[in-house]
Amino acid sequence: MASKAEYREGLDDSTSIPITEGKMEILGQDELSQKEEDLSSVADSEATPVPIQLYHKPPTKQFVLIIIALALCVFLASLDQIIVSTSIPAITREFNSLNDIAWLGTAYMVTATALQPLYGKFSDIFGRKATMLFANFLFLVGSAIAGWATSMDMLIVGRAVAGMGAGGLMAMVFIILSDMLDMRERGKYIGFIGAIFSFSSVIGPLMGGAFTDNLSWRWSFWINLPFGAISILFIFINLDLPTPKGTLRDKLRRIDYLGSFFLTCSVILILLPLSWGGGKYDWNSGIVIGLLIAGFVVAGIFILIEWKVAKEPILPIHLFKIRNLWATYGSLFFSGMSFFGVLFFLPIYFQVVKKENATVGGLETVPFVFGIVITSISSGIWVLKKGTFAFFPALGSIHFVIGSALCITFQRDTQRAVTIIVLLLCGFGMGFTFQASTLAVQAAVKPKYMATVTTTVQFVRSLGQVFGVAIVGSVFNNKLHDSLADNFPDDQSITSVTQDYSNIYSYPPDQILTIYDCFLYAVHFVFYCSVVFSSLSFIMACFIQHHELKTNANQGGQQGKPEMMVEMV
Known about the structure:
Keywords: Membrane, Transmembrane, Transmembrane helix, Transport
Pfam family, one: MFS_1
Order of helices and strands: HEHHHHHHHHHHHHHHHHHHHHE
Mean pLDDT: 77
CATH topology of one domain: Growth Hormone, Chain: A
Subcellular location: Endomembrane system
Strand order of the largest sheet: 1-2
Structural class: mainly alpha
Shape: globular
Distance between the termini: 23 Å
Number of helices: 21
Low-confidence stretches: 1-53, 553-569
CATH class of one domain: Mainly Alpha
InterPro entries: MFS, MFS_dom, MFS_trans_sf
Protein name: Major facilitator superfamily (MFS) profile domain-containing protein
């Protein structure tokens, strides 16, 4: 029988206690309170296995319908993030509001990222099902507002509301999977969800262009309504996870209002100048610098509140003492920077430098996504069979380092076979990190922190994407302007090609080739940045340690005796 200390290490509010034949040791309240906060959920391998969380996997038919619903949620939320990019010209023509067009992406991105960390704690308080349905509802309301918008202001409001829901959808999908599946089995499905996310990121612009050309730009938002309704229906009928006890008043009292306010404000204050810098405002402008300083100050206040004030903090600061958490989050942040930076600027290489149209240019990135799909799913199967995962983030990062370095060799006449192989390699790198990063943080904490660390995975990845696009975008613009100025010192109007790529064709053929080379020069610096970011991701990933992935199967009763699982509340 395990010692008292071993039982204390494993006990918490959501732990399931196996009762086997024999006596059950009873611990006093004083003993239980001596070590309330544990920094690891993994027991000593020589001791009796620590009891694990009871996973609530439904019958096969219900489970399949839930997986379909979750896949739809990820597909729609990811699709909505990028589908509007090809609809912008039609929207600006209808509303005659070119100056506000950047807000279509900014409003969605800021609200989705800012509210994402809150959903984990809210799901602990109000339950997974209620929180997921609420996020779905917000997303569909925002999509409806955007689809029937009669002005640019109304469209921006719709995008902001949809973003509030989308952030919750992305977070709750992984939390629900983790509640239903044991540590090994969930890796396979997290890989599948990662593949869905990547697929929608590429097909989004193609769908947006098709809707705009053949129907209306409004279908870019209306498409969410029927499929979102199916998702809500499947979740409402089939998802049956335990609901936290307590009255509504009790649950409302548990919310960390102060922490929620300061976290949301800090994220908004940081993301807005990052999205404006180098475009709407110069990076050295007072508003950009002022907002960034204010954002980091408010973030510091949030940390103090979570550390010293909050009774049920949104983000328990002591968790960051755990090696796997800071290593994984650091690796994710830098991989997000490299991934989105490359994905964002690849179309410029194909459409401007290689002179391909938008449809063909979009299809050129399919190998990137295909690589992600292959390794996302295959690494999930590996985890299911072998139970090891810690090496995947480092393996993925080094793949992306090599792939990004090879992207620097791209020229105007590079053969398609070469770009396919290189982008496949980049995709392999990103796919290896999807499920392993989530498992790395979940395996390192007690079950009661699972929702918190899972939502933080999505939050950190989103932050990395925003920082990556901002930094890489600034580098690209600076290098492009410098190169154009060096090659066309007497032509002050040459910068017009950076505002509208079609202006390139107003120049003589020999000058057009020079302009192409200027764009290629700037794109190469995007890939240089990606090499640096993915190298930093690799360094952080090397600190990730392996933890045994417990399953219901390997947590059986002593000497193969069956268990009765009793959930502690």
